[in-house]
Amino acid sequence: MLERLPTSAGSQALLLAVSGGPDSLALLLLLAECRAALLAAGYALHVATVDHGLRAASREEAAFVARLCAALGLPHRTLLWTGPKLAGNLAGTARRARYELLADAARALGAPAILTAHHQDDQIETHFLAAARGAGDRGLAGMRAARDLAPGLSLLRPFLAVPGAALKAAVAIRGIRAVDDPSNRDPRFDRARLRAALDLPAAERRACLARIAAHAARRDAEDAALAAWLGRLRGEGALWIDALGGIRLEATALREAPPSLAPLLLGRILRAAGGADYPPPRAALARLLARLGSDAAEGATLGGAVLDTRGPLVIRREYGRQGLATIPAGGAGALVFDRRFEVAGPIGGLFPPASRLAAFGYLNRGNPAERVLPVLLDAEDRLIAAPEALARKAGPGCFPLPITERLSFRIDEDLPKKAEFLQNA
Where in the cell is it found (predicted)? Predict the structure, then answer.
């Protein structure tokens, strides 16, 4: 795990995500015992528990972790999820909220990494769930031991090679009773149903792990090739981000890309430009590539992004019929808008009370590129602040809104070498 951490010139925080269950308690207890080695490497442990507020016992479970951390001499904070608990994909919504809360806490600490206790059993479950939905190498490879969460912030999973039973034993031998979350056995959730049915004999388990490793090796080789291709495009000035948050790609870049890399490249670009969680399906990417490769190629939309084929290919966020979601901003110091921009508070580094971020198109203003840029509104939907690209249309008296694009980060996410994109102002 220490090898995966960036070299620390001074004392930096590491944030442990601890729910109180046996897996995360093992992470807490074992790393607490390694505190001296971590301090020598320049890292101090901090602990966070996310209280989703979905069960009556969640508050006491967070308090239990807080008491244990106090006994261990480790700082702890409870992160409350106050967002709407909508029906539907509640597990997915809660997972996204959990990582957003943890990322915010890590940024506040200046921590370069968040550590979770995902283990070998979780990896096997992830593999079987991917197989059930017909995934390819990327899904069947399971979770990465290290992945990018945000610029300068990694998620580390040091226990992926460790069976869950070993973690439970590590907690039991220390005489600590872990939290029992009944949702882990709730048959309404796919993972819980699979967990109840999955009890592999040792030989089958080894074979499954070998398959996962083979898929991961192919994924990693593909990632390395894609990173090299992105580096080449960058070096040739064939890929850059414009001042309005559009991704610009020379028309020949996709045609000249190796056939195995072209859909990966286009998928990453569309995911970034469209503010999406995942790239579009491979079949949709293949159809779009075929269209773009024809002499009569016209504009297209896919995955929340719109493509303009006049001159260099320009891929931007599509405003859409429903527009983009607004974000309450009052009192915050920094926010992420539509997964595409980091937005800093415009007044003393903070957002004014009762303000919110919205797309410029929310005001029925701007051309297609401007409509998807973030602006800050007050409670009466009056414009408070706007980015430099909208300064002329925003008018006098409007504060500058500091924004930093995240598109480059999202295109490069989890690749072995980060491709640095040119910012064309």
Answer: Cytoplasm
- Backbone phi and psi for residue 231, each to the nearest 5 degrees, phi listed first: -60, -40
The per-residue pLDDT for 26 is 97
* AA letter at 65: V
Q: What are the structure tokens assigned to 323, written together?
A: 């527009």
Comparing C-alpha atoms, which of 43, 42, 45 is closest to residue 31? 45
* Number of C-beta neighbours around residue 58 at 10 A: 21
Domain boundaries of the chain, sorted by first residue: 2-199, 237-319+411-424, 327-407
Both tokens of 175, joined, read 């005489």
Return the CATH number of the domain spanning residue range 2-199.
3.40.50.620
Please state the residue numbers annotated as binding site for ATP.
19-24
Can you give the pTM of this predicted structure?
Answer: 0.89
Percent with pLDDT over 70 in the chain: 91
**How many other CB atoms are found less than 10 A from the CB of residue 75?**
14
Each residue of 212-260: pLDDT tens digit? Answer: 999 999 999 999 999 999 999 999 999 999 999 999 999 889 999 999 9
- pLDDT-based confidence at 422, cuts 50/70/90? very low
Binding residue positions: 19-24
